[in-house]
Design a protein that fits this description.
433 residues, 10 helices, binds adenosine-5'-triphosphate, six-stranded mixed sheet, 2 domains, Coagulation Factor XIII, Chain A, domain 1, binds magnesium ion, alpha/beta, globular, five-stranded antiparallel sheet
């Protein structure tokens, strides 16, 4: 294992909520007074859990609490979590924009960070002046920065505005320039918060390419995003923050799955029969669902080469006049639809009772990655009537062991073939000469 370039120990950050200026000096003095006497921080004790949806009793909230992790040189680490989980706070502390309340961070190497639109830029200075300013902050010499200038300007696509003050840039242009500066200047560690969303589609693609290069070239990348597709394709490892705490440090596929399922256990197998509000309508109720291997055993992971099956158990009441159509809705980890199964005609199965609908999904249809399966039942009689539709009811991880081993052979290769499907199609190759 290569040496770690970032080490975070017992890191916590306490923020005061509400009006920033009231009482802070007295609180700061009180905190300092406790500290010199070797006592605990008095506000730390009253600090509430960082949950944005709950109105707490205290004026203080832990944005981060007891965070521990290491990042090895050359690693691409994804940082995920819901709004307000503490991701940006963590990146700000690592980039030394703000100080931790307690705990320590050790960083080896120069960090270039792209935190929020415009951080690191002086609004009155022109694009060119800001490039030199950022380079100087990273400890680069003028001629070194000059060598990179063309690449930066070219990548950002802002050549015409290079000598215009940054305050006149649109937010998209600011991000373009800021990304180019962070990615092309000589930093060993690149820290990027979710800012790419501001750029247009073409620029996002360009940034993704550049970040892949950064990850492949042995530089270290820390990347925050809500786009799980980007996280899975860029990062091998993720940390998941929940209410300011690090709840998972795991391979990307596992982390993404946990992000989507809120850490619920056995999402590949679910019992819906005890729901307070049953999933039912038009005389049908969803009882259970499972992802299974071909022998009918519920499993969380499927080898891409073998097929698997999805089972949905439902109950029909006596009064259904015609039978329903079961269907499965498959989405990828970024929430994009991959397919919905075509309706299976079960019109004749009308009697009351419990039914199992099993759909066989062949090997080499879904690509490796995490997929979510929605379970639905519809009646088609005078239009479509949905009895129930449980979106993302089940989760399956498709594993490609062949590419996983290639991964360790070829340094830097991400081991993931892009796209949600990887069909085995018939080929015909003929020799022409
Ligand atoms: N300067 C500040 N003063 C007070 N509270 C703050 C400050 N900055 C952040 N917080 C609080 O800290 C918590 C974590 O915020 P943070 O910006 O790190 O979340 P995040 O995970 O980046 O969320 P998002 O996905 O919305 O970007 C939130 O509850 C936020 O309100
Ligand atoms: Mg944020």
């Amino acid at each position: 294992m290569s040496q770690s370039v970032i080490q975070v120990d017992k890191l916590s950050k306490l923020y005061r909520l509400g009006e920033v200026s009231t009482g802070t000096i007295s609180h700061d003095l009180n905190r300092w007074w406790h500290r010199v006497r070797g006592r605990d921080d008095p506000y730390a004790m009253v600090g509430q859990v960082n949950d944005r949806s709950r109105k707490g009793e205290s004026d203080y909230a832990w944005a981060l609490q007891d965070i521990n992790f290491k990042v090895a040189q050359g690693e691409a680490l994804g940082i995920i979590g819901r709004n307000g989980a503490g991701k940006s706070t963590l990146l700000k502390i690592l980039s030394r924009v703000t100080a931790p309340t307690s705990g320590s961070i050790k960083v080896k190497g120069r960090i270039a960070s792209l935190l929020e639109v415009g951080t690191g830029f002086h609004p009155e200075l022109t694009g060119r002046e800001n490039i030199f300013l950022n380079g100087a902050i990273l400890g680069m010499r003028r001629h070194e920065i000059r060598q990179k200038l063309d690449e930066i300007v070219d990548f950002s696509g802002c050549a015409a505005y290079l000598d215009t003050p940054v305050k006149r840039y649109s937010s998209g242009m600011t991000v373009r320039l800021a990304f180019a500066v962070a990615a092309f200047l000589d930093a060993e560690i690149l820290v990027i918060d979710e800012v790419l969303a501001v750029g247009d589609g073409e620029f996002q693609k360009k940034c993704l390419g550049k970040m892949t290069d950064v990850a492949d070239s042995g530089r270290t990348l820390l990347f925050v995003s809500h786009n799980m597709g980007l996280i899975s394709s860029l990062c091998k490892r993720v940390i998941l923050l929940e209410e300011g705490r690090l709840s998972l440090d795991a391979p990307a596929s596992e982390g993404v799955m946990s992000y989507y399922t809120h850490g619920r256990s056995t999402p590949y197998k679910a019992d819906f029969s005890n729901r307070q509000r049953p999933l039912s309508g038009h005389g049908a109720t969803l009882l259970a669902g499972a992802v299974e291997d071909l022998s009918g055993v519920a499993v969380a992971e499927i080898d891409i080469r073998s097929g698997f099956q999805v089972r949905m158990r439902y109950r029909l009441e006596t009064d259904t006049r015609t039978g329903p159509f079961p269907n499965f809705h498959v989405t990828d980890s970024a929430g994009n639809y991959v397919f919905v199964t075509a309706p299976l005609n079960t019109r004749l199965l009308t009697g009351s009772g419990v039914y199992d609908a099993v759909c066989h999904i062949p090997g080499y249809l879904l690509n490796d990655g995490t997929y979510f399966i929605g379970l639905a039942l519809t009646f088609m009689e005078k239009g479509v009537k949905v009895a129930f539709f449980e979106k993302d009811a089940l989760c399956v991880n498709i594993i490609d062991p062949i590419h996983a081993t290639l991964d360790s052979d070829r340094n830097g290769y991400s081991g993931h073939v892009p796209g949600p499907i990887r069909p085995r199609l018939d080929w015909c190759v003929s020799q022409l000469s």
